[in-house]
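Target chain:
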Amino acid sequence: MTGNTFEEITTNVPYKPLTISLKKHSGRNNTGTITIRHQGGGHAKKYRMVDFYFHDKKTIPAKVETVEYDPYRSAWISLVCYNDGERRYILAHKDIRVGDVVVTAEKTPLVSGNRLEIGNIPVGL
């Protein structure tokens, strides 16, 4: 059996402007009646809003500030700060480190962490 050692994590406090609370339903329907047994309880979690699309941030370099644990997914996430000062969460790749620069563009250098359109990725990479 394998597990995470959490050595890659650089902070345990999320960036508050990018977190929201999701309401738990505890197995209840719209009238409050329990319809599914053995639900509820558990640790309170904050949802981190991860940017998957990057529509308005193409060609703007971003510097990785933190690598964080996300309770709602099995992947690590990274807080990045773009050159215009805006911060967003992105999914972290395997070798990401604090201080790395990540670019999203149609054509960008083939460096670990850069994102480009799938049609521009060379075959076999």
About this structure: DSSP finds no helices and six strands in the chain. The mean pLDDT is 90.
